[in-house]
Design a protein that fits this description.
heterodimer; A: mainly beta; 11 strands; globular; B: 114 residues; four-stranded antiparallel beta sheet; 52% strand
């Protein structure tokens, strides 16, 4: 098992609430990623980071935001949750080169009521 | 456009029989190819990758994959399936460059019957 952690594992929250999904890794990886996995199980990249103070939007448009203040920490925030945000969110990290595999956290399953 | 296709939503196989999960890709340049497995309520686990060299790549849990450049395929195989292999399998291709972004296939559910 890779040393990448996500909390909470499950979250049920009402519409309009602000939430932050936590992701931490202890491997010293520079690159980190957030994926959204929809009910059809397909994964979509929503955010990534090259390193501290570097964040980019991914291929799927998302209303969430991310920050990278420390190498090991890559939290994702939704300012105002909506039912359309209901999904599984997976965090991953990797070493520098594109031939290096990504290591995934266990995921956060978010339900917005 | 870069893409990965997994043509089968589900593969059914009896325990002890060989299994194949198919993957084809479309990328420019030389691809880096990956297979991941996802068990229920878990994140993805890395199985194996092809970077260069030998077309047959061996990975975790007895899995292997064969890279075929002419057919642009990277099929996952195992000689003898186990019930515990039942899971969701994803093929992915790296776009290379600085981002290390992966393009994932849609996933194939492998069901191994006892």
């Amino acid at each position: 098992e890779a040393d990448i952690y996500q909390t909470p594992r499950y979250l049920v929250i009402g519409t309009g609430k602000k939430i932050t999904l936590e992701c931490s890794q202890t491997m010293g990886h520079d690159k980190m990623y957030w994926y959204q996995q929809d009910p059809g199980m397909e994964l979509h990249l929503i955010h990534y980071s090259y390193g501290v103070n570097s964040t980019e939007k991914g291929d799927l448009s998302s209303e969430s935001t991310v920050s990278r203040i420390r190498t090991e920490h890559f939290p994702l925030t939704l300012e105002s949750a909506r039912p359309s945000h209901t999904s599984q969110y997976l965090c991953a990290s990797s070493r520098v080169l594109s031939l290096h595999e990504q290591y995934f956290g266990p995921g956060t399953r978010l339900t917005v009521t | 456009a870069q893409s990965v296709a997994q043509p089968e939503d589900q593969v059914n196989v009896a325990e002890g029989n060989p299994l194949t999960v198919k993957c084809t890709y479309s990328v420019s340049g030389n691809p880096y190819l990956f297979w991941y497995v996802q068990y229920p309520n878990r994140g993805l686990q890395f199985l194996l990758k092809y970077i260069t060299g030998d077309n047959l790549v061996k990975g975790s849990y007895g899995f292997e994959a064969e890279f075929n450049k002419s057919q642009t395929s990277f099929h996952l195989k195992k000689p003898s399936a186990l019930v515990s292999d039942s899971a969701l399998y994803f093929c992915a291709v790296s776009l290379g460059g600085a981002t290390n972004k992966l393009i994932f296939g849609t996933g194939t559910l492998l069901a191994v019957q006892p």
